[in-house]
Amino acid sequence: MKKNLIFQQLFESQSSTYTYLLADAESKEAILIDTVIETVDRDLTLIAELGLNLVYVLDTHIHADHVTGAGEIRRRTGVKTAVPKTASVPCADLNLSDGDELQFGKFKIKTMETPGHTDASLSFYCEEMVFTGDVLLIRGTGRTDFQSGSAEELFDSVHKKLFTLPPETKVYPAHDYKGFTSSTIEMEIRHNPRVGCGKTKDQFIQIMKELKLDLPKKIKESLPANMACGKVDEIENPISYKTLTPKELSAQLDQVLVVDVRGPEEYFGELGHIKNSHQITLGNNLKQFLEGYNRSEEIVFVCRSGQRSEDAANLGIKLGFKKISHLGSGMLGWNECKLPVERAGGF
């Protein structure tokens, strides 16, 4: 660690979460990693006492056991917040991918994509230190049984990314439940009973299958709040989509954007499609379209029977859209009501 790098490891006892403060002693620019809503006052007081200028608040993943303090800190200070790009959190200022770097003073912190605990998990490397979130813990790993976790991906993230770092690299996880504060890559390779000690991927997968863990106590509060950058009030008044009947949609076609999420063959097939609707297949194509679209516009999703359009509506809400609806009975219901369709043209 360089002489002019300020480093503080802070602890929140209820969720056993570590928050990390890093700063350049000369420029006074600082970052925080994995904050907790209950300790925002503590963190900001410390930053003020040290005379620092906070420039970034980073989250290694979308936490399920506590609410991040990122949104509250941004509200108070105007700081930029950052999350994994693959988490699709529209309220974050920065969406980080593998290899992205953030500057604070003369120091840089580098992003490493390390999925497995969740499908959107990052580690951060800075000055011979790696902040591993819940992917690699001290003598353990994060769980892989929800949030699209994967034992296979976690094993690869650890072995192909983290274990390739210099052996002396200090390991700082987001949690510890045994009283440890740090480790090294060398120590985890030698002594981690899950992913070290010569364990194979098959052995690790079996270990994770046999875990019998309760869900985190705050998961119902934490996940939706963290998808909203830590805004707990959005849980109490959640935004939801509407389900429209064919006649309701027909009456407002000139006021909304209709997006048909079926594939092209279905769109131009027997059931036809609604005039002037946009054909954008559910999946990456739809996600890319929505990420670049105005979130204040009203969108109605359509499919064959209503299931895929409901999935699209949920995606729209997740990406921050406020006016989302879907055609509950799909094009089947539209045709049953003998409403007009087209079988050629479209967008």
Topology (SSEs and partners):
Blueprint: E1 5-12, E2 17-24, E3 29-33, H1 40-49, E4 53-58, H2 70-77, E5 80-84, E6 94-96, E7 101-104, E8 107-113, E9 122-126, E10 129-133, E11 136-137, E12 140-141, H3 151-160, E13 170-173, E14 183-184, H4 185-191, H5 201-209, H6 219-227, H7 233-236, E15 242-244, H8 246-250, E16 257-260, H9 264-267, E17 278-279, H10 284-291, E18 299-302, H11 307-318, E19 324-327, H12 330-336
Parallel strand pairs: 3-4, 4-5, 5-6, 10-13, 15-19, 16-17, 16-18, 18-19
Antiparallel strand pairs: 1-2, 2-3, 7-8, 8-9, 9-10, 11-12, 13-14
The top level CATH class name of the largest domain: Alpha Beta
Write down the domain tally: 2
Biggest beta sheet summary? 6 strands, mixed
What structural category characterises the helix and strand content? alpha/beta
Mean pLDDT: 92
CATH superfamily of the largest domain: Ribonuclease Z/Hydroxyacylglutathione hydrolase-like
**Rg, alpha carbons:** 23 Å
Distance N to C terminus:
56 Å
What is the annotated CATH architecture of the largest domain? 4-Layer Sandwich
Number of strands: 19
Please indicate the percent range of residues in DSSP E strands (runs of 2 or more). 15-25%
DSSP helix fraction:
25-40%
